[in-house]
Design a protein that fits this description.
20% strand; six-stranded mixed sheet; binds ligand BES; alpha/beta; 474 residues; nine-stranded mixed sheet; 13 helices; single chain; binds manganese (II) ion
Length: 474
């Protein structure tokens, strides 16, 4: 969606009035009756928005009371989403936003929810769909950088959502890598894609093992954004799980909702999207993205429970459930990250259903080792963009659960509890740097529409990591 400054006006254009001062109502093209109606509604509930059909155009009035704190900002995003649904319903594709009170944070939040809420996944619809494509902001309340920053972030989120919504018969590991590479090339970020041969040479045993049941080639993608004016000496490395489809393998998943497992590469896509947005906005930070990708299927040569593999750092793993595959491919990427001498590594993965059991779909499960000083500002970013992080305990006692009798560690816990933490503890065997693990299984893919996050892919993680990296001195 285009988000630009408004430069022209016509009487037939759709207009949105975003106002906090009720006295402004009298100046809008509304009848006395309409004004009173809105005033009353705003008195009992805030914020509130109404659309009016003026035949040649629509007038949408959005009232809000405050922008103090994260929650009121989030409410404005959700109001923006309601507004775009109104325009889409009316088959409209553009509007101009007037905000006479001139509160930059309110305008940005409303516009963000509006833009993100307009997303549709339509490549397979023959019937023509209405796509809202231009929101123009009147006045000089926002700088042109603030506007293009938002436009680029939305663009990155939409590309990520498209990839995540794409089914595996269209988007296998190689196509996934190619799509990311095409976009990276267009913004001057470098990307290398390793295929089976190089993955074998690199000794990525976890990725190769998960891939054994597949007839498609695995990939390991390395994205690098290294602008000449980068302010950090040691890079930040982002690692994303790129499981293009998770059947569970031989420990096959039950059929209910299995289609959603096309979204098991959402962490990988979000890593791409974060770096893509940083490059689009030319943020002066050196960032590396690592994305191991494959599907996980039963097959004649598929890994089976009981298999023992030896990882690149010598650690042996007893595979007791082939559905705990994400941690196997992430382990290779975490080992690979060492060669960058990173200041911080953050991984994002749709890793455990247990995360949703613990906190539902309104937050991310986070853990850290040696990175408490980064976790705090990251959690603040989480509040700011409203992809909130709950920090889970990472006590050493959990370690016992993955001790194996015949190998160094097992890939699942022994008991039934703390599955999300145990997955994190498994990953910790492969790191030797400050590290944050984000389990995004909760929020990556919505079964029903969740405001501007949408239905299906949400692109969770992109706005979060972008905000953190743009601000943080790392
Ligand atoms: N990709 C799944 C986790 C998942 C489940 C993500 C539901 C999104 C929604 C992961 O590979 C998995 O299967 N995890 C298992 C781990 C278990 C075998 C220890 C799980 O959560 O059941
Ligand atoms: Mn699985
Ligand atoms: Mn999985």
């Amino acid at each position: 969606m285009i988000i630009r400054k408004n430069t022209s006006s016509s009487p037939d254009q759709n207009v949105i009035y975003l106002i906090s001062d009720p006295n402004q109502l009298a100046r809008l093209p509304l009848s006395e009756q309409e004004q009173n109606y809105i005033r009353e509604a705003a008195a009992s509930k805030s914020p509130v928005g109404f659309g009016f059909n003026r035949y040649t155009h629509h007038v949408y009035v959005q009232m809000y009371a405050e922008t103090t704190g994260y929650t009121s900002i989030e409410k404005l995003r959700r109001e923006g989403d309601q507004a775009v649904l109104y325009f889409l319903q009316a088959k409209q594709t553009s509007a101009v936003l007037f905000a006479p009170d001139g509160e930059a944070s309110a305008i940005l939040a409303f516009a963000e929810g509006f833009a993100l809420g307009s997303y549709k996944f339509i490549p397979y619809k023959q019937k023509e769909e209405v796509v809202f494509n231009e929101l123009r902001i009147n006045g000089d309340w926002l700088s042109s950088f603030q506007l293009s920053r938002l436009e680029n972030l939305v663009k990155a989120c939409f590309e990520v959502r498209d990839m995540v919504n794409e089914p595996v018969n269209v988007l296998d590991a190689m196509i996934f890598a190619r799509k990311m590479a095409d976009s990276c090339r267009s913004v001057g970020a470098e990307m290398k894609v390793f295929g089976r041969k190089e993955i074998e040479d690199l000794g990525m045993v976890g990725l190769l093992t998960v891939n054994r049941g597949s007839i498609s080639e695995p990939t390991f993608s390395v994205i690098e954004w290294k602008p000449a004016d980068a302010r950090n000496k040691q890079p930040i490395v982002l690692v994303g799980k790129g499981l293009v489809f998770d059947t569970g393998g031989i420990n096959l998943k039950p059929g209910n909702g299995l289609d959603a497992m096309k979204s098991d590469m959402a962490g990988g896509a979000a890593v791409f999207g974060t770096i893509y947005a940083l490059a689009l906005n030319k943020v002066p930070v050196h960032v590396v993205g690592l994305i191991p990708a494959t599907d996980n299927r039963p097959g004649q040569n598929a890994m089976v429970p009981g298999d023992i593999i030896r990882m690149g750092n010598g650690k042996t793993i007893e595979i007791l459930n082939t559905d705990a595959e994400g941690r196997l491919i992430l382990a290779d990427a975490l080992l690979y990250a060492r060669k960058y001498d990173p200041s911080l590594v953050i991984d994002m993965a749709t890793l455990t259903g247990a995360a949703s059991v613990a906190i539902g779909r309104f937050g991310i499960a986070g853990m850290q080792q040696g990175a408490s000083r980064y976790m705090k500002p990251l959690m603040e970013s989480g509040m700011r963009v409203y992809e909130r992080i709950v920090e889970f305990p990472f006590w050493e006692e959990y370690e016992k659960d993955i001790e194996s009798d015949i190998a160094d560690i097992r890939n699942i816990g022994k008991g039934r509890g703390a599955g999300t933490i145990i997955a994190g503890k498994f990953l910790a065997h492969f790191i030797d740097y400050p590290w944050i693990h984000l389990d995004i299984a909760t929020m990556a893919f919505m079964d029903s529409r969740e405001s501007y996050m949408g239905k299906g892919a949400t692109a969770v993680g992109v706005r979060l990591l972008y905000d953190f990296i743009e601000r943080e001195e790392v």
